[in-house]
Amino acid sequence: MKILNLGCGTKTSSRDGVVNIDWSPYLRLRRNPVGRFVAARALRGVRRERFLQLGDNVLVHDVSKGIPFDDGTVDVVYHSHFIEHIDRTRVGGFLAEVRRVLRPGGVHRVVVPDLEQTCRAYLAHLETCRSEPSARADHDCYVGALIEQSVRRESYGTSTQPQPLRFVENVVLGDARRRGETHQWMYDRINLPVLLEEHGFRDVQIRDHRSSYVAHWDELGLDRNETGDEYKPGSLYVECLR
Question: How far apart are CA 101 and CA 16, in angstroms?
Fold first, then answer.
């Protein structure tokens, strides 16, 4: 089988047949000898950890310019917390590319932040605040879970850096939207299946992090952590066929 793991970040699989694809600044630094040298010495904390975690099994490619595989040559296309970062006017083009590279009967597995779960948590906390006034101090966390990543102007990683590095990063790399960090839309168990069906996919199914059309999916480890638990709690898992 050939499985594409689009927008993989540091969550990759070394199993045969899995092609991990990403376009992060870390990867672009890593493939350049000078970039590797500078990054290994300049990055600190979480950033340094992420850089060092990157494996050599990632294809560095900008998926906004297309998926670099021939028509009908891929068995599974998988992406997690990726499609919500694509502008709504460009989602159709991305889905057309996924459909193009999949063989007939191929599986498209989509993982997104679940808007329904986030909204239910927000509403539940509203009720908690009525009976427990002290809970109001935490309420903005629930509001932030709904909108923060959509309205963020500055990249989160850059915002934690000291000046003048923060200034330089904003000038060179741009704001959060330019870097693809912001959410351009949100999805739930209604609108995501509708979107997939509108773009020619069939047999749409809601899954969990372990279940799949793909045999032995859980063994790939893409939707679970090292202890076997869900890698990104609060996610919606949807699969469909080409």
Answer: 19
Residues 231, 80: Cα–Cα separation, whole Å: 10
pLDDT digits (tens, 9 = 90+) for 129-157: 999 999 999 999 999 999 999 999 988 88
Q: Which domains does the chain have, with CATH numbers?
A: 1-23+61-113+187-242 (3.40.50.150)
Residue (of 190, 182, 115, 181) closest to 145 by Cα position: 115
What's the pLDDT at 5?
A: 97
Beta bridge partners, 173, equal: none
The strands making up 18-22's β-sheet, listed across from edge to edge, are 58-60, 18-22, 3-6, 74-80, 102-113, 235-241, 202-207
Indicate the residue type of 101.
V
pTM exceeds 0.85: yes
User: How far does the chain reach from its first CA to its final CA, in angstroms?
Assistant: 15
- Do residues 98 and 67 touch, judged by C-beta distance below 8 A? yes
8-state DSSP, 70: -
DSSP annotation of 242 reads -
Smallest CA-to-CA distance from 181 within 52, 55, 25, 68 is with: 25
